[in-house]
Every structure is written in structure tokens, then in C-alpha cells.
Amino acid sequence: MLTWDETKKVLSEYTTGRKFGSTSVGANLRRVDFENANLTGVDLTGADLKRADLTGANLTGANLTDADLTRTDLHGTNLSRAKLQGTNLVNANLQSANLVNANLQYADLTGANLTGANLTGANLHGAILLGTKLQDANLRIANLSGAKLQGANLLNANLQHTNLADADLTGADLLVTKLQSANLMNANLTGADLQGAYLQDADLTNANLTNANLTGADLTDAYLRGADLSNVDLQNANLWDANLRYADLTGANLTDADLTGANLRGAYLAGTNLSNVLE
Length: 279
Known about the structure:
The protein has one helix at 4-14. The chain is 4% helix and 0% strand. It is built from one helix and no strands. By secondary structure, the chain is largely without helices or strands.
């Protein structure tokens, strides 16, 4: 583990044309070894950290805006309250990282590994998470509005009270994901796998769930007004007191679903399979 003096020395050696204090703006830090280093509050705006080793480092409150962390190892790194707006984290390893209240607006996390990461309260508005691994990640009360999550793996992730309005989750894996009280207004969930997902009190107003798999999902008190549920698989789903007014259920499969107290006023039910439905 580097001491603070050793860390400053390394940073100063990699900083071109700038005096080092607490800042290394635009530094070339490719492949540098900062394992377990203390980088609390450091300014690495625009720095090149491709393939660097930041395993277990402390970057609490650090500024990494527009930095390049492509394929960087951040396993177990503390990035709480870090500024990562527009940062390139393509294929980065962020397993078990601490990103509580971090700012990742418009960051590119394509192919990154965030398995088990803690992103509670993080701001990921407009972030790119194509094919990103988020299994078992904690995204509670995070802001993912407008985020691109096509093909992302969110298996067993915690998205309770999370803002996913206008997010694109096409083909995402949301198997047994916790989405209680989540905001999914206008979200695109076409072809998403939501088997066994927990969606109690979730807001799916005008969401697109075409061809999604919601087998065994719990949608108790969910708000689905105007949602597109055409060709959705809702076998054995729990829709107690759900609001499905004006929802499109054309061709949907609701075999053995529980619709007790559900509001279906104005819903489109052409070709809907309602075999053994409870109501």
C-alpha cells in the first residue's frame, strides 16, 4: 500500500507540464499501480488511467470527470461521492466497488463489471450501461433516468425506489430483481426478462413491455396505465389492485394470474389468454 507521500510522488512523475498539489489534471497514468492507495479528494480530471490498477484504492470525493478508465481495475475501490461525469469506464472492473452518492451522469460503462457494487443514491442520468454486469448490485434510490441499459444483467439487483424514467432496458435481465416503488414511467422494457421480479407499487405508466417475460412477477398495486403489454407473458403473476387502465394487453398470456381488485377499465384485451385467472 502506497503512503500519501509515495502517491504524490508517483502522480507528480506522471503529470506533464503541471505542478502537482492535490491535482493531476490531464495526467498520463496508464497502467500505473495505485493498489490500496489513498487518493481521497484528488483531482484527476481528464486523466488517462487506462488499464491502471486501483484495486482497493480510496478515491472518496475524487474528481475523475472526463477521465479515461478503460479496462481499469477498480475492484473494491471506494468511489463514494466521486465525480465521474462523462468518464469512460468501458470494460472496467468495479466489482464490489463503493459508489454511494457518486456522480456518473453520462458516463460510459459499456461492458463494465459492477457485480455486487454499491450504487445507493448514485446519479447515473443518461449513463451508458450496454451489456453491463450489475448482478447483486445495490442501486437503491439511484437516478438512472434516461440511462441506456440494453442487454444489461441486473439479476437480483436492488432497484427499490430507483428512478428509471425513460430508461432503455431492452432485452435486460431483471430476473428476481427488486423494483418496489421504482419509477419506470416511459421506460422501454421490450423483451426484458422480469421473471419473479418484485414490482410492488412500481410506476410503469406508458412503459413499453412488449414481449417481456413477467412470469411469476409481483405487480401488487403497480401502476400500468397506458402501458404496452402486448404479447407479454404474465403467467402466475400477481396483479392485485394493479392499475391497468388503457393498457394494451393484446396477445398477452395471463394464465393463472391473480387480477383481484385490478382496474382494467379501457384496457385492450384482444387475443389475451385469461385462462384460470383469479379476479
